[in-house]
Specification:
The chain has about 90 residues and is α+β, with helices and mostly antiparallel strands. It has one helix and five strands. The structure holds zinc ion (ZN). InterPro entries: DUF7848.
Length: about 90
């Protein structure tokens, strides 16, 4: 049996999101067709977040940026047991 692995056709190709490493605030996840397509928006979010002081008057400057992909494995034949009959 062979298995093919590729992008999940039912999911967004990529999703970019920015997370503040100081407070955990995060931008809205932005779907992308190609990686980096929405990078400018992600950068704007980080710059705006740093521009706002927190309750202690400090500005957050560290960010974790994630780009998420979704994969799907397609076996050449059925590999799961038959679905149970529903009552
Ligand atoms: Zn923050």
């Amino acid at each position: 049996m062979t298995m093919r692995l590729g992008a999940d056709p039912e999911a967004e190709p990529y999703v970019i999101q920015v997370h503040c490493t100081s407070c955990g605030a995060a931008s809205d996840p932005a779907p992308e067709r190609v990686p980096g397509e929405r990078r400018a928006k992600a950068e704007e979010w980080a710059l705006a977040h740093t521009g706002k002081a927190d309750a202690q008057g400090r500005h957050h400057t560290g960010y974790r940026v994630t780009v998420t992909m979704f994969w799907r494995v397609s076996p050449s034949e059925e590999i799961d047991p038959p679905a149970p009959d529903r009552p």
